[in-house]
Amino acid sequence: MAMFHYRIKSGKKGTAVDRFNYITRQGNHSDRDEVVWTEFGNLPAWCEDNPKRYWQTADRHERANGAVYREHVVALPSELDASQQHALVDKLVQNLAGNKPYQYAIHAPNSSLASAVHPHMHLQVSDRLPDGIERAPAQEFMRYNAKDPSQGGRRKDSGGRTPLQVRDELIATRKMIADLQNEALAEHGHATRVDHRSHWERGIKREPERHLGQERISQMSTEDKAKYTADRKRRTECCKHHPPTHAAVRAAAGP
Q1: Catalytically annotated residue among 6, 22, 54, 228
Q2: What is the pLDDT of residues 120-154, one digit of tens each?
Q3: How many angstroms from the chain centroid is the CA of residue 152?
Q4: Residue 25 region by backbone torsions, left for phi larger than 0, else alpha for psi between -120 and 50, else beta
Q5: N or C: which end of the chain has fewer CB within 10 A?
Q6: Least confident of 75-79, 104-108, 200-204
Q7: How far is CA 130 from CA 77, 153, 217, in A?
Q8: How many helices (H) and strands (E) does the chain have?
Q9: For residues 148 and 240, what is the distance between their CA atoms, to the nearest angstrom?
Q10: Domains along the chain?
Q11: C-alpha torsion sign, points 220, 221, 222, 225
């Protein structure tokens, strides 16, 4: 069943390579065989089509308090087959990364609670915007020089926003992701749809599910896992038969 899940986080200097290894399942993460597809794009020429070199250089030369990358994690509809999910991811990457350097991978791990596959995308993106100026690797991550861009690094696409603007952009991003997923589901004949809104906005009177994590799940007995899975299915089915209240619909629609 398609369910909406999206999160974004930033990584500080010194963490980009490890995250790259995690996403592509290399290095210390190579024992996990979950990668369906991996791809990169928009790298500067000095990388020579080696995305790991880009993140290694960023870890060395990004300023101390600067974010080296943003990571977008998006759950993919299990109703779509692998090629359909790949086509959807291409559209998501175009919208989330644009012309900035990126690396992504599609993971398809088996659920620790139920015998089902949970496909999702990890997208690692640099905030550094291309401007047509060729720079040495170290200069790439210097502070931007507005008076003479050729003397500084690439400008970042993450500064100067107010908290309200950040919130509005996040809401718009969540809606964009849901819209693209629903378009793909409709295109391939599926009636299921996802919704980017919160339970409160949709008038659903239950707490959102909490991510249990692999460690906590590993401590659960077989009976506990079965009970948790059954309760989750019951809550989901219950919500299907209780449409949003008029008050919640009005609140979600805004003034």
Answers
A1: 22
A2: 999 999 999 999 999 999 999 999 999 999 999 99
A3: 30
A4: left
A5: C
A6: 200-204
A7: 32, 10, 43
A8: 9, 5
A9: 58
A10: 6-187 (3.30.930.30), 200-253 (no CATH)
A11: negative
Instruction: Report the Cα–Cα distance between both ends of the chain, in Å, rounded.
Output: 33
Bridge-partner residues for 103, per DSSP?
Answer: 40, 124
Can you tell me whether residue 186 is helix, strand or coil? helix
- The answer to whether 63 touches 143, Cβ cutoff 8 Å, is yes
User: What is the pLDDT, as a whole number, of residue 137?
Assistant: 96
Lowest mean pLDDT among 1-10, 146-155, 220-229: 220-229
Annotated active-site residue 22? The verdict is yes
Give the tokens for residue 24. 């592509």
- 160 backbone φψ class: left, alpha, beta (φ>0; ψ -120 to 50): left
Q: What is the DSSP letter of 66?
A: S
* Alpha carbon separation from 113 to 29, 81, 211 (Å, rounded): 22, 22, 12
